[in-house]
Amino acid sequence: MSQIKAFLTSRKIAPFVFLAPYLILFSVFKVWPVIQAVKISFTRFQGLQNQTWVGLQNYEALYSNPRFSMALRNTTIYTVGTLLVLIPLPLILAVLLNSGRVAKGTVFRIILFLPALTSLVVVGSVFRLLLGRDGFLNSALGLFGMEPLRWLEVAGLTLPSLILLAVWRWTGINIMYFNAGLVNISKELYEAAAIDGANARQIFWRITLPLLKPTTLFVVIISIIGGFQVFVEPFILFVNGESPGNSALTIAVLIYRTAFLSFQFGPAAAMGVILAIIIFILSLIQFRYFGTFKKEA
Amino acid sequence: MSAPGRPSALIRQPEAVLHLRNRRWVWTLVITAFFVVLAFLFLIPLYWMTISSLRPQAEIFSAGTKLLPSTATLDNYRRLLSDVPYPRWFMNSLLQSTGYAVVTVLICTMGGFALSKYRFRLRNPIFILILLSQMIPFHLLIVSLFLLIIQLGLVESYLGAILPLAAHPIGIFFMRQYMLSLEDEMLDAARVDGANEYRMFFSVVLPNVKPALSTLFILFALEYWNNLLWPLIVFRQPQNMPLTVGIASLVNQYRVQYDLVMAGSTLATLPFIVLFFFLRRQFTEGFAAYGTGIEK
């Protein structure tokens, strides 16, 4: 008995005991479901008990499924659209906030960060109200003599609406990331540049921007990976994610709808596998730039 | 001004100093004014949510740009308590978020300790596998996880909502990095004093990583509080839903009852905004952890 206790409390065994809860949950709820998902992507479900192996049929069906290609297209446009705003805007704001030219900078940092604390369900609900036909945005635009726009009702405006929401939600967080990068740039570099007579514009292009490159790259990559998984925003902004002409249908929304509204588990799993492959490739690019395994292993 | 910005030149030309100082002052004013406008734009959604929740029901849709309601009323909140099980949703969110944060912080702290302070075979492969798991999109798992919790009989249960999310790669990574800086001498001293490994963990290690524990706790509580997808799949019964699923059920209709939704959203958003003002360091460190988790 005491031998067993001595064994369990030994330094050799202790790390495995400490890791056990994590690894058990990790195996049951991560590793196993991944394997199952791949398996399900090759099967057809007729009821929960009756499954037949159908080979690549689910994947072939996706290839000719217009909704899936629409979702791929929309998700890509959304991701690129968010990048075009959510990299330069927070970068410039962070540089300005760090320039010492903003009175009460902390107050602005806090206000811009508040959206990050809100649930996307709440954000989606509020934006649905704000972007309604007689909503605040149209009324405000009307003050400037603009015609009201049907933000959530016509195909061409649904993705811009989603991007607008994303800009509101993520600008503050990205400012925080850029700020962390800016703080790490040595003050001496700026002083030396100022003594050499560099003006603010030259300092930004020649010092700040090149030295922020790792941070920028990091924000770009998490934005791409996050963008490709966008779900709650379109799911709430449009009833059950059903946007006009599928104009804001994203991969994640299509997977959810296929699995839990049409109960087609096989095709949903196949789309999940394709999404995972896309994310995997994007992550490989990230690892190449950030050298995760070079540093850790 | 022969050499703008050159300190030695400025000292010799007092009028240039004055000129530059003036310009600097003007720029500060212009940039600050820009931020004031931006801050107001960014506050609109949260302001509109709060003020809509206080408007009479009929006015919410037709408010236009009226920044204040014709009369402020708590009727929407009254209906929120009588028409839908809002207090239940709130309690469910509170209990599930707390439960999730406790479980996840505990297993990530234990795991992070093993990965940082022991040498054993398979340590690096296990660590790399955990890091790799971070790139699994949750949407790949939703079908198989749903079937799994049906088999395990965990549908509609707190455990079914919490356990599948608890093996958090960023959590264990964050704790590992944090604990790398714990001094081995301190641990050895505890061992010499006769404490076994587990006793040492609870009486020496945990007290020394308190800041990291509170940062992770806040991060995970917020993460669950705001999460929709997994609870949406686990809970179908209104009395078991957390806030996000409950509010989503009110919004996912063609005729949305915005009176209930805005009141419910305001109450759901308030706790973490208030907490944020008291625990800003924990929040920002928590969000930064997402950065380090992916970056390093």
Name of the top-level CATH class of the largest domain in chain B: Mainly Alpha
CATH top level assignment of the largest domain in chain A: Mainly Alpha
Going by CATH, what is the homologous superfamily of the largest domain in chain A? MetI-like
How helical, in percent, are the residues of chain A?
A: over 70%
CA radius of gyration of chain B is 26 Å
Q: Which spans of chain B have pLDDT < 50 for at least 5 consecutive residues?
A: 1-13
**DSSP strand tally of chain A:** 2
Shape of chain B: globular
Strand numbers in spatial order across the main sheet of chain A: 1-2
Largest sheet of chain B: none
| Fraction of helical residues of chain B | over 70%
Structural class of chain B: mainly alpha
Number of extended strands of chain B:
0
Secondary-structure arrangement, i.e. CATH architecture of the largest domain in chain A: Orthogonal Bundle
Name the CATH superfamily assignment of the largest domain in chain B.
MetI-like
Strand content of chain B: under 5%
Q: Greatest interface and its residue counts?
A: A-B, 111 and 105 residues
Query: What is the N-to-C order of secondary-structure elements of chain B (H for helix, E for strand)?
Result: HHHHHHHHHHHHHHH
Low-confidence stretches of chain A: 292-297
